[in-house]
Amino acid sequence: MASSSTSVVQPTIERAQELGEALAEIRVRVRSAALPGATPTLVAVSKYKPPSDILACYEHEQYDFGENYVQELVDKAAGLPHEIRWHFIGTLQSNKAKILASIPNLYCIQTLASAKAASALDKAVPESRDTALRVLLQVNTSGEANKSGLLPLGEEVDVAASDLGQLAIHVVKKCPRLRLEGLMTIGSLEQSLSISETEKNADFEKLKETRGKLEEYLAKNHADSPWGHETSGNLVLSMGMSSDFEAALKAGSDIVRVGTGIFGERPKKAT
Ligand SMILES: *Cc1c(COP(=O)(O)O)cnc(C)c1O
């Protein structure tokens, strides 16, 4: 079935089976936690995992994959089927925009956080690409210093004066080759591990509130420009990882990013 075939090493039968089972289990959990009528996207986060693992999931019709490192993504994308939709979820540096945007099946950048990076990406999107490159703005909902992203929009905030609002306007008005599709957050792991099932996750609530404010502002002021999901027209939310994707889905997440839950533990990053 894989049309473009590839130089990628095939997974062993055991590994293919293990990944097939893990993926099936996560899909069941995603479906049962999703809100009625919702069909959330499961992004399989494959950083540090070999291309053969990705191919094994692809054989089970998993097409959305997330990667954190530009060179790793470039190398993997070159050897794997072009039907894959790659999501970039790592720290985005403006000087890497060109190489990232040159990946023909790059589907979405989930970690946009500066106008400089937005302009660099917009300039780098090749003419040959027939759709705008989707971007999500990263929001630091937990306020942790080790997390990237813009401040969420609180109750009283003036959207147009906030960093997040200004970046959204910059993308919508000044970056015709990008499409502002929504917002992404990581949130505090402690928060998601410490709360009970009936409590609300404050970080997910903050992302929802931010989306509500931004959507209201854009609908009022920039209704004539394209933004939001191509079919629903709404800003989508990417929130939820292995440890908290069910809570995120119950809170209304549209995209969950699951690594460990599918592929198992990652090697610790060398420092
Ligand atoms: C690594 C990573 C994930 C996946 O994390 P798991 O806990 O392994 O599911 C999701 N989102 C981002 C931004 C990541 O860097």
Automatic annotation (TrEMBL):
Residues 39-267 form the Alanine racemase N-terminal domain. One of its GO terms (molecular function) is pyridoxal phosphate binding. PROSITE patterns: UPF0001. The modification N6-(pyridoxal phosphate)lysine is found at K47. Its cofactor is pyridoxal 5'-phosphate. Pfam families: Ala_racemase_N. Keywords: Pyridoxal phosphate. It comes from the Eukaryota. Pyridoxal 5'-phosphate (PLP)-binding protein, which may be involved in intracellular homeostatic regulation of pyridoxal 5'-phosphate (PLP), the active form of vitamin B6. This is Pyridoxal phosphate homeostasis protein. It comes from Macrolepiota fuliginosa MF-IS2.
